[in-house]
Amino acid sequence: MELIISQQKQKDWPAVWAVLEPVFRAGESYPLPSDVSEADAETYWVKKDGYNAVAYDDTGLLVGVYYLRPDQGGPGAHICNAGYVVASEARGKGIATALCLRSQAQAVAMGFSGMKFNLVVASNAGALSAWRKAGMEIIGTVPKAFDHPRVGLVDAHIMFRDLKP
Amino acid sequence: MELIISQQKQKDWPAVWAVLEPVFRAGESYPLPSDVSEADAETYWVKKDGYNAVAYDDTGLLVGVYYLRPDQGGPGAHICNAGYVVASEARGKGIATALCLRSQAQAVAMGFSGMKFNLVVASNAGALSAWRKAGMEIIGTVPKAFDHPRVGLVDAHIMFRDLKP
Questions:
Q1: What is the pLDDT of residues A59-112, one digit of tens each?
Q2: HEC string for B47-96
Q3: Chain B CA closest to residue A159
Q4: Which of A16, A113, A124, B159 is close enough to B117 for a disulfide, judged by CB 3.0 to 4.6 Å?
Q5: Residues A66 and A83 sit within 8 Å (Cβ to Cβ)
Q6: Residue among A48, A86, A49, A80 at smallest CA distance from A66
Q7: Cβ of B69 under 8 Å from any chain A Cβ?
Q8: Domain spanning B4-162: which CATH class is it, in words?
């Protein structure tokens, strides 16, 4: 599938929220209250100091979104953090891996030298597999760091990829 | 040394800033620009969703400060993050370890079940030793995550302690 990826504009938000909302409501992957308001979700997702992207397929369907931002400030700002959501109707097609790889190219273009994920829920096998295919490696695990609505307390992995050539 | 620790009040800020400023200006331990403004430093240090403490010695000198806050939101909010600064004239007396242990007790009282540090600069041997004495363990290392003004790019450790009884 060809992905047409561009920077998210203000006008994209309603479509982006339609992709994010079911994932945030499920409460199984992002560290947000499952009843998060749309306004708080927008503040969380669309970072002033970051970059947001939208990915459409060749039929014009919004199939995924991502954000990039500095993981830390000042002397830690050369490592980026990123997050991804794939639309429910577009899963199982490798879009998460493709989005992650494309976001790494964007991160390099923005001058970042590494990418770090802070909380990959250990029960989220699909995500773990997708990120590994995109070159991300587990560099640490926080025990019982995520309270999953069905599984209970589960570990959260920290993942990293060096982006320097 | 006896430490008298209490919740930071608005009136404490000038004294707190006097302790923080030289550490932030040095740029060797916190992920802030070394020229951070006082206002931005206060926003960084005094978190609306967290807890801030001041520690005085028995002569009335402010010897150290710390913050506690949820490391993540929603299903990740049971793990806290914390930061500490010991006044330059009070170092080498075990205050960092004592502050960390006291903050762990405070974290338990606030309902947190674990404590996580996200960026312990690997060249900061004093801090690493202090946190280890307070039961914190390295659970992962981000390669070259911190641009140290003298050492250059150095690793940053992620540390964790389970706070459940």
A1: 999 999 999 999 999 999 999 999 999 999 998 899 999 999 999 999 999 999
A2: CCCCEEEEEECCCCCEEEEEEEEECCCHHHCCEEEEEEEECHHHCCCCHH
A3: B142
A4: B159
A5: yes
A6: A86
A7: no
A8: alpha beta
- The tally of CA atoms less than 13 A away on the side-chain side of residue B149 is 14
**pLDDT tens for each residue of B29-58:** 999 999 999 999 999 999 888 999 999 999
Q: How far is B36 from chain A (nearest CA, A)?
A: 9
**Domain ranges in chain B?**
4-162
Does residue A161 sit at the B interface (CB-CB below 8 Å)? no
Nearest to A104 by CA among A43, A47, A30, A160: A160
CB pair distance less than 8 Å for A31 and B156: no
DSSP bridge pairs for B69: B81
- A58 φ, ψ (degrees, to nearest 5): -75, 0
Amino acid at A127: A
Measured CA to CA, the distance from residue B124 to residue A12 in angstroms comes to 44
pTM (2 d.p.): 0.96
User: A160 and chain B: CB distance < 8 Å anywhere?
Assistant: yes
Residue (of A140, A121, A118) closest to A70 by Cα position:
A118
The token pair that represents B19 in the structure block: 């302790």
Burial class (CB in 10 A: 0-12, 13-18, 19+), A50: middle
User: In sequence order, which ranges of A7-94 are alpha helices (DSSP H)?
Assistant: 13-26, 38-45
